[in-house]
Specification:
Blueprint lengths: L5 E4 L5 H12 L3 E6 L2 H10 L5 E4 L5 H14 L5 E4 L14 H29 L2 E6 L3 H4 L5 H21 L4 E8 L5 H9 L1 H10 L8 H12 L10 E4 L7
Parallel strand pairs: 1-2, 1-4, 2-3, 4-5, 5-6, 6-7
Helix pairs in contact: 1-9, 3-4, 4-6, 7-8
InterPro entries: KR_dom, NAD(P)-bd_dom_sf, Sc_DH/Rdtase_CS, SDR, SDR_fam
Main location: secreted
Organism: Nocardia flavorosea
Length: 246
Amino acid sequence: MGTTKVALVTGACGGIGGAIARHLAEAGYSIAAGDLDAAAAAELAASLPTRSIGVGVDITDSSAVAAAVATVESDLGPIDVLVNNAGIDKIEPFVQSTEDTWKKIVSVNYLGTVTVTRAVLDGMIERKSGRIVNISSDAGRVGSSGEVVYSGTKGAVIAFGKALAREVATKGITVNTVCPGPTDTALLQQVADYSEKMFEATRRAVPMKRIGQPDDVAPAVVFFASEGATYITGQTLSVSGGLTMA
């Protein structure tokens, strides 16, 4: 690969985030593992096979994001790949949800993605090179009961990525989105706790008849980050065992 490229992964300490960080490291990238939990991020970074660092960051705070990006660039070098993976949800009927919950979900899932992207974009434009991979969800493509505002934010992430892809297409930067289907994470456990019937129906609806694993999702991110994806931008790829086909 020549000079080691640097990938910043947000929400790196979650199930999917951890898998993405590990797969990118195994592909030779230095990893900046960004997470609200700085100690867990440092622990993850120490476990990776390439030179990596953990960065504690609240992606809803633009000054904290700017400081985190500066730390990454100082310690590892310019950010070549950004994976916007951080996200939160609260499974409940929309009519029982509160305004405070809506604002938190929007501020992390959508505005957090916007904020981190903006913080790394100038450097990518200056270098005429960059890969941005947003982690959305099939909920943002087809909707999901008990995840109404979450689905809205994930749909927004998809549209944001497409529009940004158009703006930066001549700058050597690609922007693509990976949409996991039902995946074995803490969030899916929330779904099971909310409605075992809904969880079972979801599992049965997957044509492959199994719930996805974080290791099923990560290779799609590695591909979008790779040289092989140079001519691919503005795309949305579901990793869902066939649950969503488009």
